[in-house]
């Protein structure tokens, strides 16, 4: 188990951002190798490093792991961010999967053609305000504890906080309706490991700007 | 931990079928409550049973679990279909998620408008033949063992076998180039619990016919 994990992706949030956050929250330093051109992706494919020809890919503990959920689960297991037993894991997984569903529409937004953006933004706001955020506010209200499951930080809390920040960028007033989520976000953001990650110079990625979008569309041949 | 798991879904494959397969492979009997109308879905929502207003929902061990992957992981843990340690779990998860990506294409196919079906089927065949099945054939070839991970049945094997059957229904010659996958399918299908599930009268669901598809669309419209 030598060396830091190596993250293979483009220099942007995409599907890798929750992984960066989780490693950071666990206090794990990592390296990044950014794809800049289609040839960079082709090289990873030709070298046989991508089981399904896709990124994210994380080299960790002698494995070349792909599939975001698998990577998050391994990191959570290794660094005790996965609850204390099978039932807590089930809740953590259920919450994580809900967050991931919302993240699907959030992460793709910067890459949509301009004529599709308005409808998508409406959908994101509706789902966040009426389906996902209320569900998690209800969980926190139900037990009054500091974290979603078992009174202990887990991958579900970290991933939820990522989404809270990213949705707020698109819907600035949203957090006003969710006081317990706001408190969770503050609490998690103030953990020493996360605080460091959020400071300038940390590996957190900004919202994808036009330059980044262009590079990504070129790598993946998106229209 | 009393009573059988209860599966809430429509009477069809959809996103519940991998869960039925996994419970069956584990030898676990379960009950099913089928939604037939939009009102049935509304009732589940109004009763507060669906965390994100969606099915599948599985009532198991006092929990009302939603999200297919969370349900699969819990069943796999409980019935020892999740490897022996963290690293085996990582491989099992990686394989399962690849299978799930292919299964998403298979699940959605019956519900597509006719104009979209041809292109979608071509994409599905291409991904199965050129991306997913070669990846798993390679895994089996690399270690020569009977199962994908740790020489022991896991949720990855069960899910893969399910998607192999369902893909073959849409692409009848797809298995021609994958002898090790064929052998895995035979091996898993012959396990007593799976064999029983594959026989008539079991809870395995057939592919959705047109009438069923129209009913299902009405539930979720």
UniProtKB/TrEMBL annotation, chain A:
Protein name: glutathione transferase
InterPro entries: Glutathione-S-Trfase_C-like, Glutathione-S-Trfase_C_sf, Glutathione_S-Trfase, Glutathione_S-Trfase_N, GST_alpha, GST_C, GST_superfamily, Thioredoxin-like_sf
Domain GST N-terminal: 3-83
GST C-terminal domain mapped to chain residues: 85-207
Sorted UniProt keywords: Transferase
Organism field: Nannospalax galili
Family assignment from sequence similarity: Belongs to the GST superfamily. Alpha family.
GO cellular component, one term: extracellular exosome
One Pfam family of this chain: GST_C_3
UniProt EC number: 2.5.1.18
GO molecular function list: glutathione transferase activity
Claim: Iron-sulfur is one of the keywords in the record: no
The protein's enzyme class: transferase
Species classification: Eukaryota, Metazoa, Chordata, Craniata, Vertebrata
PROSITE patterns with a match to the protein in the record: GST_CTER, GST_NTER
GO biological process, one term: xenobiotic metabolic process
From TrEMBL, chain B:
Transmembrane segments: none
Biological process, per Gene Ontology: glutathione metabolic process; xenobiotic metabolic process
A single cellular component GO annotation: cytosol
E.C. no: 2.5.1.18
Domain named GST C-terminal: residues: 85-207
Family: Belongs to the GST superfamily. Alpha family.
Gene encoding the protein: LOC103727361
Name of the protein in question: glutathione transferase
Keywords: Transferase
UniProt feature coiled coil, ranges: none
Biased composition (Basic and acidic residues): 205-221
